[in-house]
Amino acid sequence: MATIGQQLLAPETGWRRYDDSDSRIVKVGTGWLNDTNTYNYNSSCNYKVGSEHNFKFKGTKLRIIQMMLGNASTDISVSIDGIIEHYSAYKSSNQYQSIVYEKSNLTNGVHSVIIKSLTGASNGLDAIDIDDIGYLLHPTLNQVASLNTMGIGDCIPCRYTATTSGVAGYFSELGICIANEIPIAGTATPDGLCYLIKTDKGTLIADRVIQTNISWDALNINGLIEGASNKPQSISTASINAFSGGFYNSGNFNYSVPIANKITFNSTNGSYGQENFKPDATVSNSSKINFKILTMTDNARLDLYFYSKTYGKSVVLVITPNQIGISSSVWNPYDINIIGKDIVVYCNFTNNTIYVAIDGVMFIYKKITPASISADADYSFLCAITSSNTAQTIQLEYYKYVPNSLGVVHNINRGLIRSMSGGCAYADADANGNMSLTDKSLGAWPTNNEWDKYIVNSDLKGKIAKGDDNVWHYTPTWSWCKETGINGLISASVPSGGNSTNRIFRGYLYQGRAINRLDNIVTSNANVAGGFRPVLNYVESDIVSEVIY
Known about the structure:
mainly beta; Jelly Rolls; flat
């Protein structure tokens, strides 16, 4: 095990590393410099005199990784939840990626960290290591795991994956994503985390451009300009008697469109049976099933297995009406009334991890042995019903979603994903609310467009400063909008005036402007400077904390 003062080029077993470039590790103030020496982690380390970083993480341990130098700061404070300790980054000879501080045995929860250099020497944080099952949280906003609990200004993590440049991807893991973030500078083939921020009733806007190098046309083909919905088709309830003993498989549920299927299991003679559920299409070495137990007699027990072609079956979950847990040599179930709750079981084959979310909240997160879960070309789940010598009934409502160009977000049956509105001209200075073809520095017209309403002018009910780039990340990339610019619209990209073949985009630092920038460009344009910033709309009830699915 590495100790303080040693060089550590990669995290040890049981740890995961975050680079200092992660947007959730906040660099306070201005005047930051970037050392691109390849000896740094990811060939980058930001530093300055009087440096200050802050971040929040969930976990039980922390390591600070940075350069140790002969002219480094000798007094750096670390505040964890208000408790302050100190360390030094001084070393007579240069040593990169060094452990300069370590804290273990923290409570397993969310911790707030502030790191400050207290001398006149330069200091730079290179990376941090935390638990391999821990994760960074949004540094400013309240991060939640369910749409049901979101208020204005709250955020929820979500995964977006696009395997091909210029082609729209799909969404997954809403509320449970702890993957590395999609870089705020953008990428053409993202596979990582972004945050969706609640700006209004039933409206969430992404905190960044999630895919660059994608044209307006490519988004439009996939319904991601005006909006693409993901609505399930229901089929009639199938009642089966699978319990006359032994193993039974009444067929895989392989559908080309989303379905909702209710199945009733009946045991009449005290024996058991198994039903094979094919999970969602395996993507990026992962698999997911989503179901709800509608009814379950008191004496019933549901064993949910993961089945690998190579390794056979291994118990993942054991469920009774009032308990749920991962089966192991030591049985430590969680007490919870499981009836009627939405259950998502997500298996990551890359890091051998099981996630279980209940009603949108991550409830179980557990590493398991590689032999229990493996990406070996045949993935399915076995639902086994066990019983005593009495009759029992379990009714499942099983949801299956097959990712397409849109993908699936958290089983939102009445949701819609689209692009933002950004206006089609400039707002004029007159009192009549007219538009202008030239920039008056008053934002876009119509003035109620989403970019100006939320990103420029909203403080999200006092939770942020208006236009905070640390929240909305509009400086490094521009965002496609829905609108066609008014003919003759003069902008930086089209100084002679645009036409109906162009579409509006907002943001990106150019000629000293970023948040207020409005521009237009041809619909086929796809470049590294801009792309897709999604909006998620869903039907939200007037009843507090109720989301209609």
